[in-house]
Amino acid sequence: MILAMIAMSCQQDQNQQELASFKENFDSLFAERQIAWDSMMVEDDTKIRYMSRLLDEISYQLPYDEFKMEQLRSNIQALAGIRFNIDELTQSEKVDAYDAATDSVLSSLVSFVTFTPQASEIPLVGELMSDIRQMDNFVLQRRNRFDDATMALNQLIEQNPGKLEALGGQYADVKPFPMFLLYPG
């Protein structure tokens, strides 16, 4: 009887250790996922600010097509209103619409700069264009990091059925998380 109690106690300790280890891994991957998301949003916000700043720089110094400038400003401002949030990743049409709008604005911005006389002679214009492209690439890199962390988190959940429920509280109702899936996994 005493041996059975000792065995049961050892099993409970082992289960508690496994649960604590699972929780630590889950929390770490969840934090990594959130950091990637937050970084992506900051970089996307920065890209949008750089786009506006580029238009400001051209408006201070050069003759330009006022209609195209205002259309671009309006399109840049509209980006923030159509951007998806982390809870909307399951709505691929919303993500696709934002990506298409961003690509369209970037293309229009490049065209506007290209066809604005003397824009290429302003060093800050070239720097801002480079920075915008760099931020756009960083956003894609963060999406990949986000997907990597999310994939690892989802695998952890899948490989450990019942552990989230055993943790209870905020963990009890967690389901697998959506991803961008920009590349084959």
Can you walk me through this structure?
This protein is mainly alpha-helical. It has a single domain, classed as de novo design (two linked rop proteins) (Up-down Bundle), CATH 1.20.1440. It has helices spanning 2-61, 66-82, 92-114, 123-159, 163-167. The chain starts with a helix and ends in an 18-residue tail after the last helix. The mean pLDDT is 90.
The major sheet is characterized as: none
User: How many strand segments?
Assistant: 0
Sum up the overall morphology in one term: elongated
- Cα radius of gyration in angstroms: 24 Å
CATH architecture assignment name? Up-down Bundle
What oligomeric assembly is this protein in? single chain
Structure class:
mainly alpha
Helix count? Answer: 5
First-to-last CA distance: 51 Å
Instruction: Please give the domain count.
Output: 1
Helical residue percent? over 70%
CATH class, named: Mainly Alpha
Query: SSE order, as H and E?
Result: HHHHH
CATH topology descriptor? de novo design (two linked rop proteins)
Strand content: under 5%
Give unreliable regions as ranges: none
Please state the average pLDDT score.
90
